[in-house]
């Protein structure tokens, strides 16, 4: 049974941000900027778009969700815990000795399909799942959430070439386009523009949304596939570090963990400005 | 060997609905019958091995036993990280099949020489490395894999390898191909088993006791059976179409008691620049029956 939805996506987004900030701070871990940029997308996905079964994480009818930007797993762990896949208290063990919550996403965690960490692995794997569903005539969908910098990896473009060849309209690529990668602005490292035109030239059905606008996210993700017979790509325009003013668009927060003072400041901002 | 592989895979696919073949746009005049008979369990992934291995893991995570098929180093080294992370780490049933083990694609050049693969694949978690010597062993390997889906690497020769002996069902135990001298074992993996048999024949013709000839189609992981089969010998001579580093000889030397002398013939680790057939390049590297014979007769550890 699909568990009735207990929380609206805006509350889920606030919860993801709150817990991820605490987890990253406690573990002195990196990558909070990229967690915050995709937090709203995760919240919309896990508050009604994805068919999930928290009591039976491996339920055969579930939609498959692959986080390819595995370094931002704190957000997914928080979403899963908030949806009841495992106790919220376990989030405190993030990155700690003996925990199962490693700081790149781990398939040992209930609700996680696939471990990533090396970029460019999630989309080919999701494509394989979509192909399996197609060949078996099953209705579930396969989602892969990628970063923008990750699109430098050639393996993604191999998958982007192949998916339309087989009309995999049960495959959904979501790009967290926060415009900042590891060493600088995406436009300065390897420009992706014109990104939409590239993907359309590769025969994908593409939509673009403000990745922090839940209504836009929900409208787009409720109308999958965007075009029958084509794989769907949703480009979410986002802000790295979204929701914490001193983190927004600051490359340092790809690496830094907030100390206790900065954490308190960040959590206070979330209280004042829930998404 | 590739024909035996595809015939056996097709036969298994008739009784095992999980089998799925993904090719990297290679296999002309080999894979077509499978594709025709099982269009729903066949995919040409194109010239894109990273995606091929990654999507194979995705298919395998949904209940298929996927065989990825290409030649030389393409389905192995080109996508090694996908095999390590997506397949082995997740313990998914994907068999990477490479045609052209060792120097089988001799005059196609160094890009096509699969000579480091054993060393590399021995280090991967959850992975079985199968290295058949002839078409019969190749069939046995496919039969075993079909019954035991797991992360695996199937190291095949090319085409035209002779049927060398009547092989038993695949198991971790090294196979006695030809009984002989209880003190000297000649252990081969892959199609160089034919060199071992030639060397044994040369010894017999010279009026000396021929060594006991073993084949090791099950190469990794070693099991207690590996050691048990070989520990009664005084001298174990390894034949492998692979560089010396990390191959069969190093594996057996680390497994067997130090009282047993382990020697062998392998390829030099330097990149081959010579142009020639498999036999030409084997001879240039000293991978021949006469060189094996010299080892049988030698008493020097460095021979």
What does the secondary structure layout of this molecule look like, with pairings?
The complex is a heterodimer of chains A (275) and B (303).
Chain A: H1 9-27, H2 32-49, E1 64-67, H3 73-82, H4 122-136, E2 142-147, H5 154-165, E3 171-177, E4 180-181, E5 184-185, H6 186-189, H7 195-201, E6 205-210, H8 214-221, E7 232-237, H9 260-272
Parallel strand pairs in A: 1-2, 2-3, 3-7, 6-7
Antiparallel strand pairs in A: 4-5
Chain B: H1 2-15, E1 19-23, H2 32-37, E2 42-44, H3 49-60, E3 65-71, H4 80-89, E4 94-99, H5 117-121, E5 128-130, H6 135-147, E6 152-156, E7 175-178, E8 181-189, H7 193-205, E9 211-215, E10 218-220, H8 224-230, E11 235-243, H9 248-255, E12 261-267, H10 278-284, H11 289-297
Parallel strand pairs in B: 1-2, 1-3, 3-4, 4-6, 5-6, 8-9, 8-11, 11-12
Antiparallel strand pairs in B: 5-10, 7-9
Helix pairs in contact in B: 1-6, 3-4, 7-11
Characterize the structure shown.
The complex is a heterodimer of chains A (275) and B (303). Chain A is of the alpha/beta class and 275 residues long. Chain A has one domain (9-272): Rossmann fold, CATH 3.40.50.970. Chain A is built from nine helices and seven strands; from the N terminus they run ααβααβαβββααβαβα. In chain A, strands 1-2-3-7-6 form a five-stranded parallel beta sheet, sandwiched between helices. The longest helix of chain A has 19 residues, at 9-27. The mean pLDDT of chain A is 96. Chain B folds into two domains: 2-156, 3-Layer(aba) Sandwich (Rossmann fold); 175-297, Rossmann fold (3-Layer(aba) Sandwich). Chain B is built from eleven helices and twelve strands. In chain B, the strands form two sheets. In chain B, strands 2-1-3-4-6-5-10 form a seven-stranded mixed beta sheet, with helices on both faces. Chain B has a five-stranded mixed beta sheet with strand order 7-9-8-11-12, with helices on both faces. In chain B, helix 7 (193-205) packs across helix 11 (289-297). Chain B starts with a helix and ends in a 6-residue tail after the last helix. The mean pLDDT of chain B is 96. Classes of the chains: A alpha/beta (275), B alpha/beta (303). At the A-B interface, helix 4 and helix 5 of A face helix 3 and helix 4 of B.
């Amino acid at each position: 049974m699909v568990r009735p939805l207990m929380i609206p996506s805006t509350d889920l987004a606030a919860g993801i941000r709150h817990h991820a900030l605490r987890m990253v701070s406690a573990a002195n871990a990196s990558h909070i900027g990229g967690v915050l940029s995709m937090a709203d997308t995760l919240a919309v996905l896990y508050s009604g778009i994805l068919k999930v079964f928290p009591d039976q994480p491996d339920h055969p009818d579930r939609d498959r969700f692959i986080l390819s930007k595995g370094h931002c797993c704190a957000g997914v762990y928080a979403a899963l815990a908030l949806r009841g896949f495992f106790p919220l208290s376990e989030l405190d063990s993030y990155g700690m000795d003996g925990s199962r919550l490693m700081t790149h996403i781990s398939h040992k965690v209930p609700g996680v399909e696939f471990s990533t960490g090396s970029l460019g692995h999630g989309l080919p794997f999701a494509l394989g799942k979509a192909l399996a569903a197609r060949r078996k005539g099953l209705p579930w969908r396969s989602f892969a959430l990628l970063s923008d910098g990750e699109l430098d990896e050639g393996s993604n473009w191999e998958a982007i070439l192949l998916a339309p060849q087989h009309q995999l309209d049960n495959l959904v690529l979501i790009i967290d386009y926060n415009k900042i990668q590891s060493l600088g602005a995406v436009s300065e490292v390897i420009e992706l523009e014109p990104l939409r035109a590239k993907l359309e030239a590769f025969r994908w059905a593409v939509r673009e949304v403000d990745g922090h606008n839940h209504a836009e996210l929900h409208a787009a993700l409720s109308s999958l596939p965007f075009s029958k017979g084509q794989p769907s790509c949703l480009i979410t325009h986002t802000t790295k570090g979204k929701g914490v003013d001193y983190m927004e668009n600051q490359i340092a927060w790809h690496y830094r963990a907030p100390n206790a003072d900065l954490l308190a400041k960040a959590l206070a901002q979330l209280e004042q400005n829930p998404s | 060997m590739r024909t035996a592989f595809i015939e056996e895979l097709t036969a298994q696919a008739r009784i095992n609905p999980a089998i799925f073949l993904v090719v990297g746009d290679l296999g002309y005049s080999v894979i077509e019958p499978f594709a025709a008979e099982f269009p729903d369990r066949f995919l040409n992934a194109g010239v894109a091995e990273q995606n091929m291995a990654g999507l194979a893991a995705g298919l395998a995570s949904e209940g298929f036993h996927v065989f990825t098929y290409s030649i030389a180093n393409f389905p192995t080294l080109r996508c090694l990280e996908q095999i390590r992370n997506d397949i082995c780490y997740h313990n998914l049933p994907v068999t990477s099949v490479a045609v052209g083990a060792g120097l089988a694609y001799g005059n196609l050049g160094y890009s096509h020489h699969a000579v480091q693969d054993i060393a590399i694949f021995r280090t991967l978690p959850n992975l079985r490395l199968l290295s058949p010597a002839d078409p019969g062993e190749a069939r046995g390997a496919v039969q075993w894999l079909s019954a035991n889906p797991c992360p695996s690497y199937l190291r095949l020769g090319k085409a035209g390898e002779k049927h060398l002996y009547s092989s038993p069902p695949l198991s971790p135990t090294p196979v006695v191909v030809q009984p002989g001298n209880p003190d000297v074992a000649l252990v081969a993996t892959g199609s160089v088993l034919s060199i071992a048999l030639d060397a044994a024949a040369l010894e017999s013709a010279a009026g000396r006791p021929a060594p006991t000839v073993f084949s090791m189609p099950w190469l990794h992981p070693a099991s207690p059976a590996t050691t048990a089969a070989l520990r009664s010998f005084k001298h174990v001579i390894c034949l492998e179409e692979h560089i010396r580093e990390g191959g069969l000889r190093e594996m057996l030397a680390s497994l067997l008691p130090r009282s047993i002398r382990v020697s062998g013939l392998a390829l030099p680790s330097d990149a081959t620049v010579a142009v020639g057939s498999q036999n030409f390049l084997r001879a240039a590297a000293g991978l021949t029956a006469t060189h094996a014979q010299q080892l049988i007769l030698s008493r020097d550890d460095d021979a």
